[in-house]
Specification:
Layout lengths: L1 H8 L7 H11 L6 H13 L3 E4 L2 E4 L4
């Protein structure tokens, strides 16, 4: 769900950790706890979809 949303954004991807985290929270209508958001973000990093340098985010989206 998150990856599909990111793919649909094209060039309008969030560029900071805070903006991406807020976008994911909004996607789930603010139903996720901070811990769940953190684990989801870590999963995106561990799978290589998101990489972080400082506070900036870059993407390697499938497709």
């Amino acid at each position: 769900m998150v990856v599909k949303n990111l793919e649909q954004r094209g060039a309008a991807l969030p560029r900071s950790v805070a903006t991406l985290t807020n976008s994911i929270g909004a996607l789930f209508q603010k139903q996720l706890s901070d811990d769940e958001l953190s684990r989801l973000f870590e999963h995106l990093q561990s799978t290589g979809i998101v990489s972080v340098q400082g506070t900036k985010v870059s993407y390697l989206l499938p497709g």
